[in-house]
Amino acid sequence: MSKKEWKNMFAFLGSLRGKHTDVLVSLVILSMLQAVRPFLSVILTGRLVDGVYEGAGIKELAGYAAAGVGGIFLMSAAEGIAIMFFNRKLEYMQEIEGAPLNKKSMAMDYEYLEDVEVHGKRQQIEQFGGWSLMSRMLHILNKLLVATVTVIMAVFVVFPMFIRCSRPVSQGLAGSWLMAAVFMAVILALVWAEFRTGGYFNDKVAETRKLISKHETRSKYYMDILSGYEKQKDVRLCKQQRLYEREFRDIADHMKNAVDKMAHFSVLDMFTQQSLSSLTGFLVYIFAGTMAIAGIISIGNVVTYAASILKFTDAVGSMAFFMNHLKRNAVFAGDYVAYMNLPQRKHEGMIPVEKRRDGRFSVEFDHVSFRYPGSESYVLQDLNLKFEIGRKMAIVGKNGSGKTTFIKLLCRLYDVTEGCIKLNGIDIRKYDYSEYCRLFAVVFQDFRVFSFPLGENVASASEADAGRAEDALERAGMGERCRTLPEGLNTCVGKEFEESGVTFSGGEKQKIAIARAIYKDAPFVIMDEPTAALDPESECEVYAGFDKMVGNKTSIYISHRLASCRFCEDILVFDGGKVVQRGSHGELEHQDGLYRELWQAQAQYYA
């Protein structure tokens, strides 16, 4: 592993410090118990064999057996408790691992949420299915610690044999370090071969797993489409069944080939590892038997030393195997660390926003230009305009003219590239961000309602003011519908979690989103295509009640339907990232320009 990979791994595990230090403590204790306990059996067995061979009495043999069995029982009991505690912690870590990721997602700069590379990092982190990344790392560290302690114990147990090898023996056999050194060199060569072949096949299996993961992602994408009743309408009406059948067959064929390939490498890996392990075991017992025949070690020591050497070789092989896994997971740990350490690029202001009951906040765009991160093209160029407090403003223009980007800048989802936006004469970047956001109630065209009770959807909180929520729904045109709901504001939106939930239509969901904006009671109300999902009657109802909905607040209304803008006092016409016209509907209708072209193009469809 590289220095960077080690650094990423330790940074990832560093998240356990503080609240979850007990996880690391339990990991160390469990690993020690798992490594040491098997040696008690090995040493006990060797001592009993020597006792029998030397003619020890029943009492002495029973004492050895009682001490060994008692020690093994106590360590097994302690190990069982440690395993139970550690496994509970693993399950707990698996459950809570998503919490810091989700917290980071909600706190990071909005631009990261539209960054494909950032999305890729999160998908890499979450690709382990039932295992969390932390669970996998802790499991691997457990195996590595066990292997490390086993190697140390094995060396400690076997060392006396090598001391004896240096002493001359009466049988004339070369009782020297040379024989032991040659033997250990052969054993280490076999262990190295096992390590190298294991690493090779492990890499091949990992490459194949990536292919399988890719096809599983495709499969999940199509399954999400087929499992949603709303998306199924398109599938059925557009006769897309054959298309999906073909895709699933293609995925199945690729998955079969990848699984067959992975099975091939797994079988070769298993055969190679078992062959090398068997050869190692054979040589160990040959060596230990030879030492016994030479009188260097006792018959009981043959069992003790041979078993210890085999545990040593198995532990070294295990270390190699899990180091490969650790290296692979260190890459994902790097993604986790990089994701969690994404810097805040937006300037963090400290000035509190002035508290005004009358909502008199003036906003000015001062030579504002903007391009998205990584792009050389400007979406907005040199905007200069002021909002007139308490007036209703409409923004119109062709697709891609910068309308929605204009709103993102106003709400400070992005910071401007050039120029500045001022609130009451002060650059908005100097204000406390959370306080600044409270000034805006927004209904985006890609709004979301959630599978929460209706009141919580409107209030965006776990507790809703019933009077305010009902008033907001009434003003949004949902009053009559709400009165028919059996549980009123406690009615769950959708049936995902509550069988008694109500499935609202697209238009009704849009009204709920509008009610959410009304409930917030912010000085600025922004509606991006707020009537796109409404029928003509409901749309007319929204237009007619717009004054009632927003009151004397400053409101911004974005729409492709120019007929819906006639109730606005001020209309901005966007084109190519610039405001090319501004005025009332009556003024712009009679001027040559883009607004008149758009109006006439749409007017022909109205009778």
Which strand order do you get reading across the main beta sheet? Answer: 6-7-8-3-9-10
| Tertiary shape | elongated
Rounded average pLDDT: 79
Helix content: 55-70%
Radius of gyration: 36 Å
Kindly state the number of beta strands: 10
Helical segment count: 21
Terminal Cα span: 73 Å
Biggest beta-sheet profile: 6 strands, mixed
- Secondary-structure-based class equals alpha/beta
The parts where pLDDT drops under 50 for at least 5 residues are 169-175
Strand content: 5-15%
Please, could you describe this protein's structure?
- By secondary structure, this protein is an alpha/beta fold.
- Helix content is 62%, strand content 9%.
- The protein contains 21 helices and 10 strands.
- The strands form 2 sheets. It has a 6-stranded mixed β-sheet with strand order 6-7-8-3-9-10. A 4-stranded antiparallel β-sheet has the order 2-1-4-5, covered by helices on one side.
- A hairpin with a 2-residue loop joins strand 9 (570-575) and strand 10 (578-583).
- Helix 2 (21-54) packs antiparallel against helix 3 (58-96), helix 7 runs antiparallel to helix 11 and helix 10 (241-293) packs antiparallel against helix 11.
- Residues 169-175 have low confidence and may be disordered.
State the gist of this model.
With 607 residues, the protein is of the alpha/beta class. It is built from 21 helices and ten strands.
